[in-house]
């Protein structure tokens, strides 16, 4: 491994590689940070300058608000040495419009979920995954509908707000965000998940645990591949009570569909890697 903040290590690693792969996530968006968007874009351009094929595996594109960032994204996707495995339909259609080297794929994390060995248990009524800069008061209403609650931040930047929410609700708190296995176990120990982060929702849907998303457009775009139901997505917890019983009575259970999609996606990835590696020699 190398430090992504050490430009000299990055250049050496790119130069010594046959292929550069961006594995999963919404890296090419400027909602979270323009600096982050420019960083990931610059690594792609650096790879292309060294004539290295770039595979965006299990990626979603956007949202991209700034015109300059849109131009950069468009110019990247138009490059015939870029190969997009899009994890949602919007990204797939946009990528396909610009570059025929585009396929619809799974989120790479599904492969790990298939290997995860754990049994569902009934410890918590609700697991909450908040996000930094959330409106803390909006979670207070959940005490009316759930008794046994645990707050689980998914990223280090969310720990402080998770502590505050747990204190307000008088509930349990999980802070070890680096222990993904334990977080998975806690999700499987919960009867309901409400999250402002994407991947806990993916986990819930994979294992058939009722969930409601406060995350926004990224989650809606991703799940559009599997369902046209909209009761899983709300903008605020005020609307949650209208959806709880509907979601509980008929949760998504996407394990089989996601496993099949992941198997196909990884096979396509391996075939492409073999093809590109032979071309580089």
UniProtKB/TrEMBL annotation:
<keyword id="KW-0808">Transferase</keyword>
<feature type="domain" description="Polysaccharide pyruvyl transferase">
    <location>
        <begin position="13"/>
        <end position="214"/>
    </location>
</feature>
<protein>
    <submittedName>
        <fullName>Polysaccharide pyruvyl transferase</fullName>
    </submittedName>
</protein>
<dbReference type="InterPro" id="IPR007345">
    <property type="entry name" value="Polysacch_pyruvyl_Trfase"/>
</dbReference>
<dbReference type="Pfam" id="PF04230">
    <property type="entry name" value="PS_pyruv_trans"/>
</dbReference>
<dbReference type="GO" id="GO:0016740">
    <property type="term" value="F:transferase activity"/>
</dbReference>
């Amino acid at each position: 491994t190398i430090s992504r903040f050490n430009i000299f290590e990055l250049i050496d690693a790119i130069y010594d590689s046959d292929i550069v792969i961006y594995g999963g996530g919404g890296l090419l968006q400027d909602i979270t940070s323009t600096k982050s968007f420019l960083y990931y874009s610059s690594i792609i351009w650096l790879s292309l300058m060294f004539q290295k094929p770039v595979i965006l595996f299990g990626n979603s594109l956007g949202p991209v608000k700034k015109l300059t960032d849109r131009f950069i994204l468009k110019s990247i996707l138009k490059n015939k040495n870029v190969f997009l495995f899009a994890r949602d339909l919007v990204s797939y259609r946009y990528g396909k419009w610009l570059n025929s080297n585009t396929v619809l794929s799974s989120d790479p994390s599904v492969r790990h979920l298939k290997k995860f060995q754990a049994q569902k248990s009934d410890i918590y009524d609700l697991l909450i995954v908040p996000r930094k800069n959330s409106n803390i008061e909006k979670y207070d209403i959940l005490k009316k509908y759930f008794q046994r609650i645990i707050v689980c931040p998914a990223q280090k930047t969310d720990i402080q707000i998770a502590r505050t929410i747990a204190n307000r609700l008088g509930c349990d708190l999980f802070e070890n965000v680096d222990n993904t296995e334990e977080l998975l176990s806690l999700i499987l120990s919960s009867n309901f998940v409400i999250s402002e982060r994407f991947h806990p929702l993916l986990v819930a849907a994979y294992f058939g645990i009722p969930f409601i998303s406060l995350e926004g457009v990224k989650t809606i775009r991703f799940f559009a591949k599997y369902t046209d139901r909209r009761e899983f997505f709300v903008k605020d917890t005020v609307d949650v009570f209208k959806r709880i019983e509907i979601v509980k009575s008929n949760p998504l259970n996407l394990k089989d569909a996601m496993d099949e999609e992941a198997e196909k996606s990884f096979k396509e990835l391996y075939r492409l890697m073999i093809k590109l590696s032979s071309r580089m020699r």
